[in-house]
């Protein structure tokens, strides 16, 4: 049985707006079930452990998908989610891959988290896939390869686009624009249509542009695990 680590944000404040954020349910649930239904053993972790915050907007009626509906009625998964391990409790050697769901939360706490960075670098050094969707490719911004270069330098990647951030009205709220930061580090950033499915693979990295891309990222990861 293959083992995959999911790393979720512990950050719940949307800048100085007074609103809440966290992880986006679709970006967690769709990949989780795609892997779970394929027989993958999944462990959940977060910087602070226990219950990661859920972005309340991802629970609104207009954000519902078959995966979120399944999640809403899944008491077993909700209990598992309420007891995530801390990042310091997990090691890359115990897993075959790592998956980072998005939501705005990771921009604040996982981008600069040393334990997360070291974990990513360990997965890459061991030749294991690192998958991230929507805002979660931000976790790659400070990671380096074995050659000391920035991990995304010269690699093809995607992530939540500037135009999508503008569309949700948060350009001046987020600490940085992910598309711009990836490009500044030398990544070959690409995007598809706003809110459409777009997945990019390069070396160990599998990245998805937005919530609609989350399940496709999971299927790309399953292909690697197979």
From TrEMBL:
Entry keyword set: Glutamine amidotransferase, Lyase, Stress response, Transferase
Pfam families: DJ-1_PfpI
Family: Belongs to the peptidase C56 family. HSP31-like subfamily.
Domain (DJ-1/PfpI): residue spans on this chain: 27-222
Keyword Transferase included in the entry's annotation: yes
Originating species: Crenobacter caeni
UniProt name for this protein: Type 1 glutamine amidotransferase domain-containing protein
Domain of life: Bacteria
GO molecular function, one term: glyoxalase III activity
Cellular compartments per GO CC: cytoplasm
